[in-house]
């Protein structure tokens, strides 16, 4: 039996987060999509086994991005991490950190789905 594939979206509750959830739900390899509005809420989830994908909207990083990513990495070792950013400065900052994918908001939906599928295939 293959392990359950879970994705967690950490973003403010709005249309953007809902759109990410819909895109993730369209990926056949993903069994469950959870969403929360803060890092604290995410860490309080009792997700077992470790989620396969964690998607973080840069805007909800409660502390600096580097510390937030370290906290997520330490909590969910082995999860692929995708950071969604607003501008080129945030993009450059996120690219310098240990993350699997950085996407500038306004990305193409097909590119997002293809990128997530590729991360899941490489697990």
Task: Give a verbal description of the structure.
This protein has 123 residues and is α/β, with parallel strands linked by helices. It has one domain: Response regulator (Rossmann fold, 3-Layer(aba) Sandwich), CATH 3.40.50. Helices cover 40% and strands 20% of the residues. It is built from 5 helices and 5 strands; from the N terminus they run βαβαβαβαβα. A 5-stranded parallel sheet has the order 2-1-3-4-5, with helices on both faces. The longest helix has 13 residues. The protein is globular, with a radius of gyration of 13 Å. The model has no long low-confidence stretch (mean pLDDT 89).
Layout of helices and strands, plus pairs?
Layout: E1 6-10, H1 15-25, E2 32-36, H2 39-44, E3 53-57, H3 65-75, E4 80-85, H4 88-95, E5 101-104, H5 109-121
Number of helices: 5
Mean pLDDT comes to 89
- Topology as H/E string? EHEHEHEHEH
Radius of gyration: 13 Å
Count structural domains.
Answer: 1
Count of DSSP E strands?
Answer: 5
Strand order of the largest sheet: 2-1-3-4-5
Helicity range of the residues? 25-40%
What is the fourth-level CATH superfamily? Response regulator
SSE-based structural type: alpha/beta
List low-confidence stretches: none
- Reading off the top of the CATH hierarchy, the class is best stated as Alpha Beta
Percentage of residues in strands: 15-25%
Which shape, going by the Cα principal axes? globular
CATH-derived architecture: 3-Layer(aba) Sandwich
CATH topology assignment: Rossmann fold
Sheet with most strands: 5 strands, parallel
Rounded to the nearest angstrom, the distance between the terminal CA atoms is 16 Å
């Amino acid at each position: 039996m293959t392990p359950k594939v879970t994705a967690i979206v950490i973003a403010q509750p709005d249309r953007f987060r809902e759109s990410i959830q819909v895109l993730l739900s369209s990926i056949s390899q993903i069994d469950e999509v959870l969403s929360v509005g803060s890092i604290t809420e995410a860490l309080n989830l009792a997700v077992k086994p470790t989620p396969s994908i964690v998607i973080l909207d840069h805007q909800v990083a409660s502390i600096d991005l580097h510390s937030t990513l370290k906290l997520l990495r330490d909590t969910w070792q082995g999860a692929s991490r995708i950071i969604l950013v607003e501008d080129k400065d945030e993009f450059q900052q996120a690219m310098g950190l240990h993350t699997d994918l950085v996407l500038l908001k306004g990305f193409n939906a097909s590119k997002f789905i293809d990128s997530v599928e590729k991360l899941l295939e490489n697990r």
